[in-house]
Amino acid sequence: MIRPGLYTIADYALTTAVAALALSPIVDLEGMEELSVEFNFAYGSGGTSLKAWLQTSLSQGTRWRDLACFTATTASKNRDFSLRRTADTGFWTPGSGTLPDDTIASSIVFGDRLRLLMTSVGTYAGGTVLSARAAAT
Question: Which distant-in-sequence residues (6+ apart) come within 8 Å of 8 by Cβ?
């Protein structure tokens, strides 16, 4: 891998509702074999729901595909998971913002970048923050 290391994918303070908000990607991750991710939702007040999809791109950011989906509502929540590139023997249809709640994709293909795509409902307040960190190797 060109740039193994620890990365901050998001430190996003939620206030107003967002629809398909794509955060700036982390780039130059060619050759990634494994990714360990930590999601931390620090709930303050308000709001209804949040979905965040960890995504990668094989087309330098033209098309994105889901790797994992994290959800939260009105309570603080932490989730950790690891992804490893998998060999697949068949075709599969990637999606963007379509992976079901709190799941990981069954076929893992890493591109050269990662980003977070978020959708939230309601107005969060009181210092509500979504953080995501990753260790890429």
Answer: 131, 132, 133
